Amino acid sequence: MTPLAFEERYCSEWRELADMLQRARGEKKVANAGQAEFSAQRLTQLYRRACEQLALARSRSFPAHLVDRLESLTHDAHQLIYRQRDFGLSALAHLLLTRFPQAVREHANYVWVAALVFILPTLILGWLVYRQPELILAVVSADTAAQFETMYSPTAEALGRLRGAETDVAMFGFYIRNNMTVALQCFASGLAAGVGSLLYLAFNGGYGGAIGGYLTNRGMGGAFYPFIATHSAFELTAIVLSGAAGLRIGHAWLMPRRRSRRQSLVDATRDVLPVVYGVLALLLIAAAIEAFWSSASALPASIKYAAAALCWTAVLAWLTLQGRDRAS
After folding, report:
1. What pLDDT shows up at residue 37?
2. Whether 79 and 118 share a structural domain
3. In three state form, how does the secondary structure of 138-159 look?
């Protein structure tokens, strides 16, 4: 579809949405409650369609005036729809079940790049260290490697527990701090033209792969992989999405188009905020599972793998299916 055909196909919806926004901002009282409910429903439908059209326009590198028009429309509609939903469980549920997966799909190109940059070093370093375990010393110190062996020993009372942590609650706090730090690095470093996000994604992927390859070589894969299987659905997804958000920020800095660089960064940050909030939720879930479920050495590996399959399916369904406008 050419940009001209794209504009001709959807411009009537854009005009309708712009008209509804203007009328809604000027209204102080609605006489017909039933009509107000219908209008609100139509407004929400047009907003969701505009978000999908914006994602399409970005992915196909349509002219800046089309992208800018859609960005302005979706921003104004978002402000109007959610200005009365700043607090409460319903707002939180809407954010996590609708806006978060929508925002992930809107930034699918960045997500795919981030996933590739994260996964490739994981596989490459994992294979290299598995073949030559002495290479682990290029990634961590000998003491750290020995500590990992202790943490994932089949005889350990609680898998993955640090020497200084006596309880699962203490490990829960450690996992939250560690995971948040990694995610923040992947996101905030996007300000360095996106290069920082790429480096942190590659580093964290390579680090995890090296540890996995080393423990597998040492015969501890039977304890390590059941430990990481379940919570990795949330933790690894969160890291990739953090990096994707950072890449969006970096892209906005590199290519502000007709806007100022500052305004471009502000707009990009606003676009990825739902992703950032969703990442926080994913990391909290991951930390809870890692501390209280993954560490349980008494649970059979088959049970953990079954739970992991359910979690990965749930996360992928969450990001790909939730928040879609079935009526459109």
Report:
1. 44
2. no
3. HCCCHHHHHHHHHHCCCCCCEC
